[in-house]
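Exam review. A common question shows you a sequence with its structure tokens and asks you to describe the fold in words. Practice with the pair below. Do the first one on your own.
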Amino acid sequence: MNIKYIHHSGFIIEDNDCSLIIDCCGLSKDSPELRECTGTYLYVLASHVHSDHFDQQIMSFSRPQIKWILSSDIQEKVPPHSDIHFLAKGDVYRDARITIKAYGSTDVGISFYMETGGKKLFHAGDLNNWHWNEEETPEDAAKNEKAFLDELALIAKEVPELDAAMFPVDPRLGKDYTRGAEQFLDSIKTGLFVPMHFGDDIDAARAFKGAAEQRGCRFADIRAAGDIFAVDLQ
């Protein structure tokens, strides 16, 4: 199984006969990234309606075997279709190849827990410790952190171990921008940590490498769009 970085929070996961496209913006039905998907079955996921996670162009993707798994807050943006499945927190999509469970977010929409190809994967969407310590009051920062830690505790109780996690490392948060990622890795044993939600600031994402490795996981050291990381590598 491989995870390909597209941009910001967008990834393509490939495993045998399945391809998953998650929170990819800027791709069209003719994009080479889509043409290169090898899976017979294509799953297109969007964690919430924000424009850096959901792009209307994903609704134009076409394959004989395609499903869209979208956060319920996107429902008003797309016409109903039998191949579109909307999830709110706690909902599950399941078929013979994949299980996807929606967990919560500390902003809008949901986060995704996925089981496929014998692997356990997580994509956080906008779930993070959005503390904004340099801009908000200590009381608001503490409230935001509690909301994140409560959701993290729920996930860790149900999913104590992951093969790979895609999680925000967003430098806009200021000096403590990796706090949420550290708390995530301290709570859930993770094989491969893939940073996301860093915009074009790749150096800020790469700076988390040491902290991730100190917590016993491999780090996806992203250098550019199109970089590929193996989930299975020991």
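Now try the second one, then compare your answer with the model answer below.
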Amino acid sequence: MAEILVENIIVSFSISSNLDLPKLAEILPDARYNPDDAPAIILQFSHPHSMAAVSSSGTVVLTGPKNMDEVHDVVKMVLDRLNVVGVECIGSPELSVQNVTISTELRQEIKLRSLAKFLQIPKYSPRVFPGLVYKEEDPNTVILLFDSGKMVCNGKSVEDATVALEKMLEKLVSFGIKMEENICQK
């Protein structure tokens, strides 16, 4: 299997309570606020490419970082921007990883209809969704397999998602897919 790539880490944390979003949107120069679309102020960052949604309850949800160093960088940028406009954040917020998305390429095509039968997945419908959705119980993850050989896995950590992909690799070998490499690389 080719290299495993971290595509996205979603993290949440709390900074305060009862933020006045309309007022903050007026004084934060690069904030987007459209309460009809989402009840949050949206802050976007180009390095690392990421986004933060700040809700009126003081909850912040980050999406886009590809590693925990980038997560910490974005958290600092959010806190700095809010501090400049008078929102004080005391101490370091407690970060909670909500979701991690990783992907890899098998470098070969997969016959999804046959694989769905092999894995006993009754609800495979390529007209509804072009991939095969496989739910792994231990660890609790979801793997998307595409006929191109691309696999995407969502879990609570890079480790959980990697373990799930390794388990899927074993199932694919049992299914008859020949692998160039049998080791997942990070």
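Model answer, second protein: The longest strand covers residues 5-14. The chain has two domains: 12-97, 106-175. Full marks require stating both points clearly.
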